[in-house]
Amino acid sequence: MDESIAMLFTNRATVIEAQRVVERLGLKIKIRFSDHAGARGAAEQLVEEGARIIISRGGVANLLRGFLTIPVVAVEYRYGDFAQAIENASKISKKIAIVSFNQGIHAALRVEQYLGQGIKLIQIDDFSRFDQTMLQLCEEGIEVVIGGHSAQTFARKHGLQSVPIMTDPHAIETAIEEARHTLTALYQYESKMQTILAILNCAPCGIISINREGRITNLNTIAREILGLGAQPVDGMHYNTVLPFPEIIESALAGRSFFRRVAEYRESFLAVNCVPVLVDGAAEGAVISLQGAHEIQIMEGKIRKQILSGGHVAKNTLKSIIGSSETLRQAKKMAFTYASVDSTVLITGETGTGKELFAQSIHNASTRQKEPFVAVNCAALPEALLESELFGYERGAFTGARSDGKSGFFEIAHGGTIFLDEIGELPVALQARLLRVLQEKEIVRVGGEKVIPIDVRVLAATNRNLLDEVAKGNFRADLYYRLSVLVLQIPPLRARGGDIRELAEYFIGQFSNKYTRGIRSIREDALTLLESMPFPGNVRELANLAERAVVLCQSADLCAEDIRSALVGGLKTPPESPAVSACLPRLREADRLLSLPAEEQRRRITHAFEEAGGSQQLAAEILGVSRTTLWRKRKELGL
Ligand SMILES: Nc1ncnc2c1ncn2[C@@H]1O[C@H](COP(=O)(O)OP(=O)(O)OP(=O)(O)O)[C@@H](O)[C@H]1O
């Protein structure tokens, strides 16, 4: 630390005294002599050499404080210094004047009172007054001047005798002590400042601090980026040259805090927080934090992704779609093409054909693949809940609403894809809202007012003929056209020829692994049987059948008999006849379910539920329909 202290004196005696002190204390402090004229240059040189604090005396200390930006410590004049000087001066003449800068005057006053000799005491605060002071002293008959280096020089110039004020070594020691304390405080202050700067620069938002006058005292790199300031120096500039929301800042300077204010800035928006810096209850300045709307959206997306990881991801890709029939290959090719654009796709096809599989694959082949994929089954949620689930709700929107509100599926899907399955089931009132969202690309939460911009690709699916629904007035024509910018038709399994074989092998292999059944092969009779079946529940039905057959299979070769066992009401009853034809009516029964009279449908569904012990999934499997079809049916039938 001592290397950062330097001494500069214009009096050789003081230099010698200081050298003695420094040597005695074993310090490494630089000591320089300079005449009065060269003091400024000598001080600047010392700063260049690394001095962080300078010790000087009297008028020179005053002079240095005027232009140096580092602290200057003055060696004090002491009572004894003056007493000694007066004694020396008295030997020359009794007509004595002490000419001192203000620091010395208090010690000198005590000497005058003590001696009571009518010694003249002159306080000087500016070099320019020396000449005039000496002239006046000559007129008054003064013969000896006691003073520092400057006073002595001027006294001699006007023909007066001069006596120096010597420097007490203890005063030098005290000055060194003071310099060390000041340096320690300076280091602590700098370390705090550097910490604050580091905090500012690692904060994920722009931060600006201003003083009471509204002048900028600090701003971090992100604030520069947000405000487009480049490297332009802004310290000391008034905030209104860069920040266009004076009402918030002025209120903060009056002591109020603001959080999450939205301010317009260059055709975009900024989220602004602004808090006053309070000292003894009064605002001494303010700190403003800024976030660009775009950055907030990116951050939100990342957070959402972290929170939702696993929950809203699409697992499947085009590669996971099994089957090489021409119709399926065409559908895959079209899906791949659709993945390269951002338009809405309407995916149509019978239940269980793989519409969601295709939706996931489109998402995963698109540029949004790293963003959320949110699948919503419009038929599976009660109408009353669907709106708030889709669009979210604002704090206190309805009784029981979580106090902080909730983001809806559209917000969750921000940056990614939303898959609206069973879109044909969307209530008409929500159809109008959805249309607005698709057109405006922004949502307003239920019970809220704030417009939230969203960037979401919409994929919708239906197993209904939507145009028929439009004709019946159940589906808005404008929404239909908005959704069907691109259409992807997934062919039913019966139109895919060889796919049944491929899929059967795939599913049997999968379930054999899952249940560790060790099935080595699938006998040709099993595959032929499967190929001869109509599969109204399409791939889902085939997968379910394969699962049951694997569980029932007792050997390493899965045969037609295992398939037949699986067909008969699932795991319970063995088939009465091994003939393929005997199996078909059961499948067709499932197929027919949907066209049976309502009463019969009701009976069968109730029965299936009883059989399934209340499980919707199992009941759907027993009936050979998808869960959502079953859900829809139950809703229609009021079950
Ligand atoms: N080509 C395929 N390859 C592998 N698995 C498939 C294929 N097609 C469908 N599946 C599987 O069949 C099941 C049903 O598919 P998916 O849910 O995508 O059908 P969906 O048409 O959306 O049905 P719904 O209309 O009932 O919602 C899923 O388990 C899916 O993984």
Automatic annotation (TrEMBL):
<dbReference type="InterPro" id="IPR003593">
    <property type="entry name" value="AAA+_ATPase"/>
</dbReference>
<dbReference type="InterPro" id="IPR010524">
    <property type="entry name" value="Sig_transdc_resp-reg_PrpR_N"/>
</dbReference>
<keyword id="KW-0805">Transcription regulation</keyword>
<protein>
    <submittedName>
        <fullName>Sigma 54-interacting transcriptional regulator</fullName>
    </submittedName>
</protein>
<keyword id="KW-0067">ATP-binding</keyword>
<dbReference type="Pfam" id="PF00989">
    <property type="entry name" value="PAS"/>
</dbReference>
<dbReference type="Pfam" id="PF02954">
    <property type="entry name" value="HTH_8"/>
</dbReference>
<dbReference type="InterPro" id="IPR002197">
    <property type="entry name" value="HTH_Fis"/>
</dbReference>
<dbReference type="InterPro" id="IPR027417">
    <property type="entry name" value="P-loop_NTPase"/>
</dbReference>
<dbReference type="InterPro" id="IPR035965">
    <property type="entry name" value="PAS-like_dom_sf"/>
</dbReference>
<dbReference type="InterPro" id="IPR013767">
    <property type="entry name" value="PAS_fold"/>
</dbReference>
<dbReference type="Pfam" id="PF06506">
    <property type="entry name" value="PrpR_N"/>
</dbReference>
<keyword id="KW-0804">Transcription</keyword>
<dbReference type="InterPro" id="IPR009057">
    <property type="entry name" value="Homeodomain-like_sf"/>
</dbReference>
<dbReference type="Pfam" id="PF00158">
    <property type="entry name" value="Sigma54_activat"/>
</dbReference>
<dbReference type="InterPro" id="IPR000014">
    <property type="entry name" value="PAS"/>
</dbReference>
<dbReference type="InterPro" id="IPR025944">
    <property type="entry name" value="Sigma_54_int_dom_CS"/>
</dbReference>
<dbReference type="InterPro" id="IPR025662">
    <property type="entry name" value="Sigma_54_int_dom_ATP-bd_1"/>
</dbReference>
<dbReference type="Pfam" id="PF25601">
    <property type="entry name" value="AAA_lid_14"/>
</dbReference>
<keyword id="KW-0238">DNA-binding</keyword>
<dbReference type="InterPro" id="IPR002078">
    <property type="entry name" value="Sigma_54_int"/>
</dbReference>
<keyword id="KW-0547">Nucleotide-binding</keyword>
<dbReference type="InterPro" id="IPR025943">
    <property type="entry name" value="Sigma_54_int_dom_ATP-bd_2"/>
</dbReference>
<dbReference type="InterPro" id="IPR058031">
    <property type="entry name" value="AAA_lid_NorR"/>
</dbReference>
<feature type="domain" description="Sigma-54 factor interaction">
    <location>
        <begin position="321"/>
        <end position="551"/>
    </location>
</feature>
